């Protein structure tokens, strides 16, 4: 009986090896933590460009280096530059801290005074007003310091991406062979990960740009102050769940009304509530639903976590990590439970039994 209760040598070796792997992986991640956003960004762009990369290399017979450089340039123009343009607008406007803070303080005081005079409701006490102004000042002065970090992340991201695109089959074979999972679960991870990345890397920026452009038209029509800056702020705010772009255009409308431009302020408010809101709903319920149905709570907590870990890039990577963690829990259940195989895995198991090949990213 005692022998039955003893832990086998194989189990001890497995546990010891797992501990060593985890310790080494922890040391690597800790010392290379600055490059984690670069790796995540490279994987994101690889998934987006994967189909076109195989088409150019295997059907059009392009050289791997040529295909890689063309796709890297295309991704830079289509994906990176629009996001960088919005960030650069914000940095350019917020970088001059003294000028910006003077205007922001007037803007905030005007809104507070107008609401208090009309409703006799002190929306922000003097202490809270000072805290808001201080936080905005710290953000504006630290915006420029993030420019170098962003450029460093982008450069290292494309350095990693080149080797992924140049040898895609080798890259995927290494990942799939390194994963200690069944082929069916590897296929499930690859398919779900592709959908998550497409929804976050393509869907969210498209929704942000769509709302920003529609909002920009309204800002010009109704004469809002600094419409180009408001465009960048609206696009960035649209990525925030629940409140979205309203956190930008509602204070602007109140400010315009407080300035005496009642008709223009009310017109802008109606335009933003109807047209910008309709644009948001239209894009989210068409584009994002087709790409992947991501639960709003995943987005909320993902953005909060991602912003803390990766800064501005966490708007995209945070929700992916939350969804991927939930996916791994599902894979763990599929891998080790005695329950029946889920429907989505039955086809994969059948193909694998027939000798089909498995790719990590489908």
Automatic annotation (TrEMBL):
The chain crosses the membrane at residues 15-48, 69-87, 143-165, 196-222, 228-258, 265-283, 303-329. Pfam families: AI-2E_transport (PF01594). It comes from the Bacteria. Residues 346-362 have a biased composition (Polar residues). Keywords: Membrane, Transmembrane, Transmembrane helix. It is found in: Membrane. Residues 339-362 are annotated as: Disordered. GO terms for cellular component: membrane. It is a multi-pass membrane protein. Belongs to the autoinducer-2 exporter (AI-2E) (TC 2.A.86) family. This is Putative PurR-regulated permease PerM. It comes from Chryseobacterium shigense.
